[in-house]
Amino acid sequence: MEFPQPNVEQFFQTLVISDFAVAPDESQLLYSTNINGAFNLWAMDLPHTYPYPLTTVNQDSHGMQYAESGSFAVVGFDRDGDELSQLYALHPEGGPLVPLLEKEGERHMGAKLTKDSKWLYYSTTRENPTYLNIERLNLETYERELMLEGEEAAHQLTALSPEGTSFVFVKVYANTYILPFLCDSGEVVALTPETAEHHTVSGIVYTSERDVYMLTNYDADRSYLARMNLDERRFEVVTTAETGEFSNLTYSKKEHALYVTATAGVSDLLYRYDLTGGNLTAVEAPVENIVKLTAADSGTLYMLGRGATMPFNLFQKRLGETWEPLTNHKVPGVPRDIMSEPEVLNYRSFDDLEIEALFFPARKEAANGHTILWPHGGPQASERKMFRSLFQLLAYEGYNILAPNFRGSSDYGLSFKKMVEGDWGYGPRLDNIYALEYVIEHGYADREKLLLMGGSYGGYMALLLHGRHPEYFKAVVDIFGVSNLFSFVKSVPDFWKPIMQQWLGDPEDDYDRFVTDSPITYLDQMTKPMLVIQGANDPRVVQEESDQIVDALRENGVDVEYLVLEDEGHGFSKKENEIEVYQRVLEFFARYV
Ligand SMILES: CC(=O)N[C@@H](C)C(=O)N[C@@H](C)C(=O)N[C@@H](C)C(=O)O
To answer: Is 580 exposed, middle or buried (0-12, 13-18, 19+ CB in 10 A)?
Structure first.
């Protein structure tokens, strides 16, 4: 039997899994996925893996967790991308949800259930939208109790002790300045030593009622494993990563061990740190990008992950055994070996700074010689070996994709990440230009065949590159990009505002730089055809950012297509919208090839 070649439609059907939780007795695995075209909660009754639906809300969910008894789970949903997460109780068999915290305009974050399931702790924007308060909800009386009032910086709850006698929260002063604190019977204690040096802390876990482990770059450039015993209150360095830096932590009670994810630039590595013997050993991982790892009481590990050519999948690893897939999501009809495997490039920028980039080659049979420059979003994030159906779709259709991890990207140490702070538009912009020059010089790309596309900060960079270096590009796609730093700084969510000074600067004190680095300043040079895409509910880069650049360009007579998705935020969560976006991008670029 001869089957036709796969076509682009196949890439539209790729499934996403955004989060999961496993019942304490491991009888059920709950996950948020878009099997039915929109996100819903689905479950599998382990060891059987056939999924069944639990909700029909058509909204994505993050931060789900089971009660210790397994009799309900706490789940959060926002509405069409507004990121105002509301919390509900879900019966393991699904059906109508019980509202726990449902208040219009309020955002609830980092929810954690106590072991006895009597209390739910969380951070909330209620009465303190900028610095957030930490509260707890009595699940018998539904009364809310204030535990800690936020001040100075956003207070985000990160861990609750096993018996609920203490909790850890972080104060977020900036993306590169995040300090951890313990709240122990009302007393607040810093978990890292006092210093004026900026550092961050992540992956905080309790391994007992009085022992806390964390990942921090306190007094270092790359994050390492540290601990504090809450009685001795002494901060200790435990171990450092051989390559890269540690980025996530999971405690396995059964093994009395920590599983530590390390990021080494564009891919992840997995380690096991034995808390009894004190040794760190490498563990094979089934994916290049570990999204989430949990350990059940039995010692079985559960992982959500993806790779450059593998969409999101769930895996299970029983003690002493190897990883087994629980899901088998692929691009229908497209084998992994015909997808684009990225090459890792290293080049030097204008000031000799070494930068890493991913280059996704076009499928040979379809190659049209065009290269799309993709500046990633964040900007303090990075482009990694993580499946993006849009990238694979474009590479399949014949385009190369170049994704540089310009200065300011995460996963290359604290000082590298800080390089974008107060410099959104100079160094990172030239790093993108130097990436182009590198691929042209080394025969990967043709100077006459360059296209440009980015989302969020990447959309900002796409607009800025268009305005300042229009000679490079034939056409530009901006997906919810920042167009004007003066309006952006005022429109971000309230709890981002304490971060803005360090992240971006002050519109009055840094007036000249805001003008120089705002894409809208360069309207007259933006002469190439453009496609602008925006979610109407986006709370991070609001619609006004896209509206103003589209209006101004149209007044200038520039050919701009504008697509606004009414039921989306900072991303595309509904299959029909995703398909519309991908089709528009494909059609748009095809016109200029
Ligand atoms: C800790 C925190 O909330 N930081 C935010 C200011 C932040 O860095 N958010 C980015 C992930 C983000 O959403 N940036 C936009 C502009 C993007 O490029 O995606």
So the answer is: middle
Taking the CA of residue 172 as reference, the ligand 1 atom at the shortest distance is: 1
In this prediction, does ipTM exceed 0.85? yes
> Atom 5 of ligand 1 has which residue's CA nearest to it?
496
Mutate to test the pocket of ligand 1, among 374, 456, 463 (most ligand atoms within 8 A of CB): 456
pLDDT, tens digit, for every residue of 15-48?
Answer: 999 999 999 999 999 999 999 999 999 999 999 9
CA of 149 from ligand 1 middle (Å) equals 23
Gap between the Cα atoms of 132 and 129, Å rounded: 5
Closest C-alpha residue for ligand 1 atom 10: 378
Residue 9 has pLDDT above 90, yes or no: no
Residue-wise pLDDT for 40-88, tens only, equals 999 999 999 999 999 999 999 999 999 999 999 999 999 999 999 999 9
Nearest atom within ligand 1 for CA of residue 376:
18
Residue 118 Cα to ligand 1 midpoint, Å, equals 33
Q: How far is the CA of 454 from the centre of ligand 1 (A)?
A: 15
Q: Would the pLDDT of 13 be above 90?
A: no
b/e code 515-524 from CB counts within 10 Å (16+ = b): ebbbbbbbbe
CA dist 582 and 428 (Å) reads 27
Ligand 1 binding residues, C-beta < 6 A: 172, 175, 377-378, 380-381, 456-457, 496, 499, 540-541
Q: What angle do CA 176, 260, 265 make, to 5 degrees?
A: 55
pLDDT digits (tens, 9 = 90+) for 486-544: 999 999 999 999 999 999 999 999 999 999 999 999 999 999 999 999 999 999 999 99
To 5 degrees, how large is the angle CA 515–CA 516–CA 521?
65
Sheet strands (E) in 34-85: 40-45, 52-53, 65-66, 73-77
Q: What is the pLDDT of residue 90?
A: 98
Q: Tell me how far the alpha carbon of residue 406 lies from the centroid of ligand 1, in angstroms.
A: 16
Q: Please choose from 132, 175, 501 the residue to mutate so as to test ligand 1's pocket, defined by most ligand atoms within 8 A of CB.
A: 175
Fold annotation for 340-591: Rossmann fold (3.40.50)
Instruction: Find the farthest-apart pair of alpha carbons in the chain and give their distance in angstroms, rounded.
Output: 72
Domain assignments of the chain as residue spans, ordered by start? 340-591
Cα 492 to middle of ligand 1, angstroms: 10
What CA–CA distance (Å, rounded) separates 162 from 229? Answer: 15
Instruction: Return d(Cα 74, Cα 64) in angstroms, integer.
Output: 6
Token couple for 484: 């004007």
Residue owning the nearest CA to atom 11 of ligand 1:
378
